[in-house]
Design a protein that fits this description.
about 270 residues; mainly alpha; 11 helices
Length: about 270
């Protein structure tokens, strides 16, 4: 690696760390994001536990809590991805940022990673809520593997949010478009219903969604299936690499289309 490449890597790493810290501080002061990341999963978990009490279907309590936590994590990631572009537009800084020497990829990445990271609070709060109020055994079979699964899930969700955000550049109503992806991903990734109950062609879509493997990695690490959890972690990392490649390919094209159609600024 050349000296210039090392300097560029160090500069981008420092920029990402500072931007991520700043964005996390801003999100921690937003009641809307805190509601989506922390309160909403508690509501989902409570409803799910009451529903399963009257059901003959056996599901591990921790699977219910993890699915509710992942629903909140995805909602906050999606909200942050769409809202990031809107905030830059409203602040009238999207155009100068796109025109700046730094890649738009690195400009938007801290926003999506921060919102996905905020979901970790929701995940932890959901597990504690379920243990205290619903007597869920708070036992993680493989704690280190579970921690690794949380990290790669946050990374994969953040990069999937970045992929979606690259398309939101084209549309001034990006937030409305972001809301469209919330419920379908809950269903396709197995947070609401088991993937095995979905039609076979739909399962193909499920397998290219990072939340599917994130849920699998967390559940298997908690329940003791180390092999399955390891494979799911690997799939999260593989999909993260694919998302980065696709985002880099699409981002330049979408920027050019937005400039050509005049939709980069707020209309």
């Amino acid at each position: 690696m050349t000296a210039s490449a090392v300097l560029a890597l160090r500069a981008n790493s420092g920029y990402l760390a500072r931007s991520l810290r700043l964005e996390l501080r801003q999100l921690a002061r937003s009641r809307l994001y805190l509601f989506f990341a922390i309160v909403l999963p508690l509501i989902f978990a409570s409803l799910a536990f009451y529903m399963f009490r009257g059901s003959v279907r056996h599901t591990a309590p921790i699977s219910v809590a993890l699915s509710a936590g992942m629903m909140g994590m995805w909602s906050s990631t999606l909200l942050g991805s769409g809202n990031a572009i809107n905030r830059l537009r409203v602040s009238q800084v999207l155009e100068p940022l796109v025109a700046s020497p730094r890649s738009t990829f690195f400009v938007i990445l801290p926003f999506t990673l921060a919102t996905a990271s905020l979901g970790v609070y929701g995940l932890g709060a959901t597990l504690l809520w379920s243990a205290v109020l619903f007597s869920m055994p708070l036992h993680i079979a493989h704690p280190l593997l579970f921690a690794a699964a949380v990290l790669v899930t946050v990374l994969a969700l953040g990069l999937l949010g970045l992929l979606l955000a690259s398309g939101f550049i084209l549309y001034p109503t990006a937030q409305s478009l972001a809301n469209f992806f919330e419920y379908p991903v809950w269903i396709l990734s197995g947070m609401l219903v088991p993937i095995s109950t979905l039609p076979r062609p739909v399962r193909v879509v499920s397998h290219v969604l990072a939340p599917t493997w994130g849920v699998s990695a967390l559940e298997n690490a908690a329940l003791g299936s180390a092999g399955a959890a390891g494979r799911a972690v690997g799939m999260c990392l593989l999909l993260s690499a694919v998302y980065v490649g696709v985002t880099l390919l699409l981002l330049g094209r979408f920027e050019w289309l937005a400039r050509s159609s005049g939709t980069l600024a707020l209309q």
